[in-house]
Amino acid sequence: SQKIEQNSEALNIQEGKTATLTCNYTNYSPAYLQWYRQDPGRGPVFLLLIRENEKEKRKERLKVTFDTTLKQSLFHITASQPADSATYLCALESGGSYIPTFGRGTSLIVHP
Amino acid sequence: DSGVTQTPKHLITATGQRVTLRCSPRSGDLSVYWYQQSLDQGLQFLIQYYNGEERAKGNILERFSAQQFPDLHSELNLSSLELGDSALYFCASSVGVAGGLINEQFFGPGTRLTVL
Questions:
Q1: How does residue B59 score in pLDDT terms, banded at 50, 70 and 90?
Q2: A90 CA: distance to closest CA in chain B (Å)
Q3: By C-alpha distance, which of B3, B15, B26, B6 is closest to B88?
């Protein structure tokens, strides 16, 4: 069966360090992979989209990698700040289905 | 502020009742998506409408229905409510039909439904 796995344990890091979050998937051949940020009680906010033929995408302090061989995406936040504390969701969109399927998310806590 | 509005913000009702959740997409967006988010299930896609027509269906129960009106706002109707329907319901919108080049979705603030 299809699965998207994100670490259910919160990631705690110190301010200024790089946070790295992982999204693994099985039985998908995604054409796109997206990362969203969600704060408690609020709707997800789109951050980045990466296509299957792209290995890396950057936006300001954010970097996403997409390894279709390993079936894994890594999401990095450099120079992390307490304001980056949130839950980060990955979502896969298989070519033709048009609809993102979301992982359960990983909570990031950045300590000052 | 994503530009997507949802009403009401909170809804408390009893089992067996029927409720309607409303969503107005961002100006210019033709697609509306509905999602359910509960603690044990995560964010689950329910249904998508594009320019008034149903486009894709996910794990939507038969007790649930939706529609998109000519002014592009959408309503999600939940009937014969059960305790397990308690969740956050999000609406999202996007410009295109999805897929293709990009599918950035803009999410509304959600409606928290509590079924007692």
A1: confident
A2: 11
A3: B6
Nearest to residue B44, comparing CAs of A38, A60, A102?
A: A102
B29-48 pLDDT per residue, tens = 999 999 999 987 889 999 99
Per-residue CA distances from B74 to A79, A83, A97, B21, B103 (Å): 40, 33, 22, 8, 19
Give the mutation candidate from B41, B43, B94 for the A interface (greatest A CB count, under 10 A).
Answer: B43
Residue A47: name the closest of B71, B48, B104 by CA.
B104
Nearest CA in chain B to A42: B109
**Residue B60 forms contact with A (CB below 8 Å):** no
Q: What distance in Å separates the CA atoms of residue A74 and residue A65, rounded to the nearest whole number?
A: 5
Instruction: Please name the residues between 13 and 52 in chain A that touch chain B, using a CB distance below 8 Å.
Output: 31-32, 34, 41-46, 49
pLDDT at B98: 59
**3-class DSSP state for residue A96?**
coil
